[in-house]
Amino acid sequence: MPRTLRPGQRAELFVIDIGTGEQRLVLSSTELLFEAPNWSPDGDWLIINGDGRLFRIPVAGGTELEEIDLGGVPAINNDHVLSPDGLTVYVSAEDGHLYAVPLAGGAPRRVSNDRVQGFHHYLHGISPDGSTLAYIGLQALPDGRRITNVWTIPAAGGSDSQVTDDEYADDGSEYSADGKWIYFNSERASSVPGHAQLFRISGGTLEQLTHDERVNWFPHQAPDGSVVAYVSFPPGTLGHPADVEDVRLRLLDADSRIRELATLFGGQGTMNVPSWSPDSTRFAYVAYPLAH
Questions:
Q1: Where are any strands of DSSP class E within 43-131?
Q2: Residue 86: left if φ>0, alpha if ψ -120 to 50, beta else—which one?
Q3: Which InterPro entries match (predicted)?
Q4: Considering the entire predicted model, what is its pTM?
Q5: pLDDT in tens, 68-126
Q6: With contact defined as beta carbons under 8 Å apart, do 185 and 192 qualify?
Q7: What number is the average pLDDT over the span 139-160?
């Protein structure tokens, strides 16, 4: 079921400048809980989901959302990405599958394959050349365990490739700007359930990127490869829940230095998917403040 706002809560879409830290409000709503902004490759639009649907709004802001016709795709969640040419949006639907939707209109195409019962696809990344999607495959087992691993699949459809194969909790798989790595968050370095850190993997090489007491999710490398933006939850947080105080938006540079950009009330839906501007100077996110 799509998420809804709590009484007195707002959804606020912001753009933040990573050089100055200036934050600009693009859209605020007390009616629709929207999530997970993508930034269009032409720099003009932000795309968000809400109520199982997909919308866009000019980066400059406005009061009205323009709904994107999904062509009969089942209700979607907050895992969606845009093709590098800006012509296609790939979405994760509540039926567990991935779909390609032409933004100019037309029939959608299912990308994902039928796998074992209880398998769901959660999309997070697309390669810089647009040829391959990176997703999290979630397998719900009869004994109640939920196994998540990093997978890839051709954007045109085809055979899946499994990147990780273990029982560590993985999420947020996304390609690096040069296409050589897949960034993701994982609990594989922790003995504490729910305590995720950031990693990247290329072939048989695995590197841990963060090593702190906070719970770190959803790494998004800037298009120029200079820094990685991510969502950081307070110590002890389990997973990536909604409506958490002290959620921080951070930047990680190539020398492993961390810079705080913003602190907000949010979490789930704040920045689940790639949301960088094409020129790597800004990114978009969503906060969910409650009335005091």
A1: 45-50, 53-58, 66-68, 76-82, 88-93, 98-102, 109-110, 119-126
A2: left
A3: 6-blade_b-propeller_TolB-like, WD40
A4: 0.96
A5: 999 999 999 999 999 999 999 999 999 999 999 999 989 999 999 998 888 999 999 99
A6: no
A7: 93
